Amino acid sequence: MGFGQAQGERGIMGTHFSSLFFDSPPVPRSIRAIGEEKEFPPGSMLVENNAPIEGCYYIVEGLVFAVDFTRNGEKVLGLVIDRDALVGETSLLLDMPFPMGFQAQIKTRALFIPKADFLDLFHRDKELSQYVALLVARKMFAVKGFYSNLGKEPVVWRVCNIILEFSHRYGKDFEGGTLIAFPLSHQLIADFANANRVTVTKCMQSLTKKGLVRRINNVYGVPDVPRLEAYTKTQASSYRNTL
């Protein structure tokens, strides 16, 4: 059975939309030339919280969260990186531990750049120093955007927003709709949404019954992206307060 209506252009959500991801500026070839490739399984730490680091990482592919943990062991997100960006570079430049750790959420490939090599390249390569300045600025705005609506918007809005973000970033045309080519689990959505997994599961079941999302061979699909965007807008607190 097909999805039905063809996928449209990405809708404009205005104040009802906040981005989970940020796009890194183009990574200089020099940084990729000196890295040693490593692979991290889900749950492993690339960088520990408040610990000295011996180098930084260039994320080739995967999903990495900047995370902290409460006394109860609950995960607190600070930044989301999935590809083509450095992590840990700020600690190297400031010569101090980063207050949050970096944890792989799915299998992640990364290039490790030793501290001495990175600092040497940073001081003599203008392209790299400009890249790092832009990267840090984009990360700062990404964190602000990530948290801009978490406190005031309901869980259903957050879940819909996450599905939309992944459909735009990892979507593939499939039967007139969009297939999300990413291993998106309920727990991962819960981490993004700052909600518990049971609540997220109920939201996903509701969205499935409404025909807004569809489960296909262990991945999710969105039959009609504009329709899900329109529904997401109606779930925003700012929208409901105007009714």
Automatic annotation (TrEMBL):
Cellular component, GO, one term: cytosol
Presence of the UniProt keyword Ribosomal protein in the record: no
InterPro entries the record matches: cNMP-bd_dom, cNMP-bd_dom_sf, Env_Response_Regulators, HTH_CRP, RmlC-like_jellyroll, WH-like_DNA-bd_sf, WH_DNA-bd_sf
Keywords in alphabetical order: DNA-binding, Transcription, Transcription regulation
Entries under Pfam families matching the protein: cNMP_binding, HTH_Crp_2
Single GO molecular function: DNA binding
Name this polypeptide is given: Crp/Fnr family transcriptional regulator
Organism: Eggerthella guodeyinii
